């Protein structure tokens, strides 16, 4: 009378995995996830081939996937982000079909529309009951929000819940409920807590980073958006976190009552909530233990699905109400196109995640990046890979000045009025090249290793192998 | 940049209502609802005709609907329950097409499957923000759970949120979120709080009712189901509430720790939660203010969608995990088929609601009914209208003995062992007829006024007009 099956193997069989199946995973356990490897090893052991894996993100803990690719067990990858270890292998061309990169908003939209139908979703659940009601808020492997798993649960033909904290029915207030669950498997551990919420992201102490962060805060102030009702998203990078810190100081000093903080949530955002800078947090993913603790206990800290976070097909998403987003870049070109997929060697080491979703939605989309990294200029004529279209980027903040997208002259005027050192993006490119010299252009190979699919489903760019 | 439109009329226009549209409503505001009439009056005033109305239930506060039917504005009704004032008119044949009666679980299943697609859902929201995130837990018209509105929100082409408590974005932890909302309309009042949660349901003091209630509690005890992990649903009728009260006393005395209480939730169920009889409540609808206060403040009191409550198409629903449900009947026949749609005159005055869903799901589905009402026997050869199939009913409790469905001999044996006075259902029929005489059979008219559609989509019965 319940949905608990004894072994993962039995669940895989019951769910009907077969050659050519598409299976899916969420990435809330981040670099501590055990579930993807556990499932893939089992599937490989059962002799299945030609599996398509749709994982909301892939981390280096998933490196065993490389062997499954080489053995023909996995022949298709769909993801929003891929860390450098796996990315380097993909860039060498180990997979015949190009990886399909989507955004955190585009992924659920395409699952719901049926563009990327899922046969079996394997959902790592920090707590689940015997009928498959699940939550990420409690359990030894608590990850907080389970936002990226909603679309998988709602749309997959079969849903297998894998938990290391099986509780009696009914689990109160599940994140995802039993109406979507087919089977429940209890395992010893779904992840390594140290990797799930690494808690290592710290505000930068690098002087260049601090200059950029302070400038970013001033740009937001000068934009006129920093007033009561202000809403804000920032990533977990050191410089963007520092910018959030400066912003918080301004908000507290000036008594500005913001509306919401959004996105992947860090303890810094939780502090801003608790200190009154925001009325609430909209959380699709927790980055650290403080965020997990907050979403568990604070009713103003709302768990949301990836659809509500960022889907372009939702009737509205949180990103559509966002005032300001602070984003990073590995490259930005003079048309403000941004690369967050590849590193300076052209190898895959990232992905859009929510980058292009928030850039499209926010009133002010700001890139924070130093003029150069490892003696390579950040501003280029053409990005090696277009992750986010320049039309959605409003401003680039560097340590040597702020470039405003020429499509936003009214913003440039406001920033100048606010005393910001506004420069032409070509000047920043020249300044960088003066420092570093003009870099040798990367030589693209002849094999497409990844397609960059924009949030609206169009093909934005292709990534080629590296020679 | 938000979804607020100035008037209901504008929202109706923007949502594209036209001749022949199907629109929907939920019934959480019960007999205090203003929204259905408000919308229908506006639509009538705009000159639209041939509207299909899918309302999860209809109460006598919706009597103005009768005029809209007579004027040809409304030509189709789909509902799960209809109170006597409207029911009497329908029974006279004012509507050309038969009313489609579904169950609380079948309704969302058919909406989601596309059997009854909705053009525009009008959702009364006790609190909503400017992007259409909504909750029933707060606001002057708070109704608690909004469980019946989920399918409408998720599947309607357009969703209009109507609220009398518009709050800034983002409302934390909405019941239904912005991804589904198209337009938001602010009005003075969505309902009359006195009618929303009447709070008038009291435990019966009628001696016959108390005898039946005590017997019902003993039957549950004798069935062997009353042990740790016990789960339970009861309606809001006086005798079933009294049975719950006796059950609570047994549970407290014997230290039995139940699992969950389910269904439309009353203050009596809240007391059972608070006194430790249950670990949690699963709430698709709040019947009184105590339930509303509890769902707002107690994290063990979980709001659920109608799908999670009772959908036969969900991978599981709460009713599937239910041990015992106590239900009423206007008639029950010797095959245990139950009528809850028509009164002794054959006129419509009710509907299945969750009756057949819980009967199908629960391990023990019990009807509590007196042998006769107003000098008419309750047990008959054939019910005038089959609302719930006898195959799903396990036992009938009357003041003169307990009849067990012959398909459940092991249950009959247990009850006898437990000292319960078990009788044949034909004996109960005879006893009733001895008291009241054999009633004159109702004469059916020749016009079908309603179809009873079972939770699996099959046609269970038809209701004819009354001559």
Give a verbal description of the structure:
The structure is a homodimer of 467-residue chains. The mean pLDDT of chain A is 96. In chain A, strands 1-11-9-6-2-3-4-5-26-27 form a ten-stranded mixed sheet. A nine-stranded mixed sheet of chain A has the order 15-14-13-12-16-19-23-24-25. Chain A is built from 15 helices and 27 strands. Chain A is of the alpha/beta class. In chain A, α8 crosses α9 (238-254).
Average of per-residue pLDDT values of chain A: 96
CATH architecture of the largest domain in chain A: 3-Layer(aba) Sandwich
* CATH homologous superfamily (4th level) name of the largest domain in chain A: Glutaconate Coenzyme A-transferase
The percentage of residues in β strands of chain A lies in 15-25%
Helicity level of chain A: 25-40%
- Strand order, largest beta sheet of chain A: 1-11-9-6-2-3-4-5-26-27
Quaternary status of these chains? homodimer
Number of strands of chain A: 27
Number of domain modules of chain A:
2
Largest sheet of chain A: 10 strands, mixed
């Amino acid at each position: 009378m319940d949905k608990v099956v004894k072994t993962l193997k039995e669940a895989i069989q019951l769910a009907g995995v077969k050659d050519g199946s598409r299976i899916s995973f969420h990435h809330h356990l981040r670099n501590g996830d055990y579930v993807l490897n556990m499932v893939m090893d089992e599937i490989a052991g059962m002799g299945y081939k030609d599996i398509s894996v749709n994982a909301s993100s892939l981390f280096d803990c998933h490196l065993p996937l490389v062997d499954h690719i080489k053995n023909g067990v996995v022949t298709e990858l769909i993801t929003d982000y891929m860390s450098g270890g796996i990315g380097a292998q993909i860039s060498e061309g180990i997979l015949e079909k190009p990886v399909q990169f989507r955004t955190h908003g585009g992924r659920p939209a395409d699952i719901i529309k049926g563009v990327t139908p899922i046969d079996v979703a394997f959902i790592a659940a920090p707590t689940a009951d015997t009928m498959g009601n699940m939550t990420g808020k409690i359990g030894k492997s608590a990850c907080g929000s389970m936002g990226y798993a909603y679309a998988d649960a709602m749309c997959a033909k079969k849903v297998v819940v894998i938990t290391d904290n099986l509780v009696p029915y009914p689990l109160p207030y599940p994140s995802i409920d039993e109406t979507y669950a087919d089977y429940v498997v209890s395992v010893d551990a779904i992840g390594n807590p140290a990797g799930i919420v690494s808690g290592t992201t710290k505000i930068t102490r690098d002087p260049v980073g601090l200059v950029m962060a302070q400038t970013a805060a001033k740009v937001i102030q000068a934009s006129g958006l920093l007033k009561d009702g202000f809403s804000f998203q920032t990533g977990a990078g050191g410089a963007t976190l520092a910018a959030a810190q400066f912003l918080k100081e301004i908000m507290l000093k000036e008594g500005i009552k913001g509306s919401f903080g959004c996105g992947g949530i860090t303890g810094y955002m939780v502090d801003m909530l608790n200190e009154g800078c925001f009325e609430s947090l909209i959380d699709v993913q927790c980055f650290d233990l403080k965020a997990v603790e907050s979403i568990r206990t604070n009713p103003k800290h709302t768990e949301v699905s990836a659809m509500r976070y960022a889907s372009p097909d939702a009737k509205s998403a949180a990103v559509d109400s966002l005032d300001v987003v602070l984003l990073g870049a590995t490259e930005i070109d003079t048309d403000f196109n941004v690369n967050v997929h590849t590193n300076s060697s052209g190898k895959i080491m990232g992905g859009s995640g929510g980058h292009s979703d928030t850039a499209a939605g926010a009133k002010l989309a700001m890139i924070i990046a130093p003029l150069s990294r490892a003696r390579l200029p950040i501003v280029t004529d053409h990005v090696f890979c277009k992750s986010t279209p320049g039309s959605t980027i409003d401003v680039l903040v560097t340590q040597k000045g702020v470039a405003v997208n020429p499509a936003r002259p009214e913003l440039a005027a406001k920033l100048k009025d606010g005393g910001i050192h506004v420069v032409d993006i070509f000047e920043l490119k020249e300044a960088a090249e003066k420092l570093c010299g003009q870099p040798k252009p990367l030589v693209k190979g002849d094999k497409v290793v990844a397609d960059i699919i924009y949030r609206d489903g169009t093909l934005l760019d292709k990534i080629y192998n590296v020679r």
